[in-house]
Amino acid sequence: MKEHGPVKPEDYEEPACLLCMDDDKTVRRIDVGRFISKLDSYYSKNDYDGAGRHLEYWYGEAVSGNDLRGRFSVLNEMLGHYRKIGNKEKALSKVNEILDVIRALGTENSISSATAYLNIGTVYKAFSMASEALPFFLRALDVYNCNLNEGDVRFGGLYNNMALALVDLHRYDEAFDFFNKAVLVMLDSGSGKPETAVTYLNMASAAEAKLGLEEAEELITEYLDLAESYLDAPDNARDGNYAFVCDKCAPVFSYYGRFYYANELRKRMKEIYERS
Fold first, then answer.
1. CA quadruple 52, 40, 58, 1: dihedral positive or negative?
2. Most C-beta atoms within 10 A of its C-beta, which of 19, 74, 251, 270?
3. What is the pTM of this model?
């Protein structure tokens, strides 16, 4: 998740801190917009190696330039990158580092830090550490509740990830409550149909976990059908995000025996990356 909006003084006034600089050092800021734009271009081509090199370069620039806010931005992206490529050691090391940076900045209750808490929780969840993930999701929720309007699209991703952690903890009723909240938020946004499809596939897997495959068969079929309908919506932008969603959804459809549709999603993904 990336934030956009008016620049405020706290966004560009760098506080002095022992973590990042000495008194005789000048802050040399990185161009965060340029960094994000180029990173997105790597992901749009499914070039994770290039994205990794890009992240390491800009991380070095932020550190050498004593740019604490720039370092925060790079670390936030690193959390997602190392999670996606399955590098647990690096992902967890960045968790500790970004928490240090947040404390040094004094921005524990900001929206940007809440996004970091969400990313941290997602890292823990990805590496089967749901008990560690849930407190960070709850922390993000507290900040979102204090700073965002009800129904803001950012709640959708948070609710979905909280639900996944709750499923791992066998707290199924709570999980389905959050899955349903996620669906409402994403559909209300008008542009969240691919993400809604992901949530319905998560609900299919959660139904199986709760009831067993045979007893959950009817529910699973319903959720798979809904996921297909949202993935096939004619107004979906066939962009890098859509390709990523197709890649994420295809194995789930294969698992439930919908091999033809899984192959169709892989075909869509390939076409998008080939023209990028």
1. negative
2. 74
3. 0.84
90: confidence class by pLDDT, cuts 50, 70, 90:
very high
Percent helix, strand, coil in the chain (nearest 5)?
A: 75, 0, 25
Residue 135: half-sphere exposure toward Cβ, Cα within 13 Å: 3
221-246: burial string, b at 16+ Cβ within 10 Å, e else: eebbebbbebbeeeebeeebbbbbbb
Pair of tokens at residue 4: 């956009």
Q: Mean pLDDT of all residues in the chain?
A: 90
Element (H, E) at 161: helix 154-168
The residue out of 76, 107, 138 marking a domain boundary is 107
Query: What is the domain extent for residue 252?
Result: 152-276
Q: Is residue 129 assigned to a domain? A: no
Give the chain's largest Cα–Cα span.
68
What tokens were used for 191?
A: 């542009």
On whether residue 127 sits in a domain, the answer given is no
Query: Taking the mean position of all CA atoms in its chain, how far away is CA 212?
Result: 28
- Boundary of a domain, candidates 91, 107, 123: 107
Q: Residue 253 is part of a domain; what is its CATH number?
A: 1.25.40
State the total domains in the chain. Answer: 2
Question: CA angle at residue 67 from 81 to 31, to 5 degrees?
Answer: 70
Q: Is 125 inside any structural domain? A: no
260: which residues sit within 8 A by CB, 6+ positions away?
none
A 10 A CB-CB count for 264 gives: 17
Mean pLDDT of the 73-86 span: 97
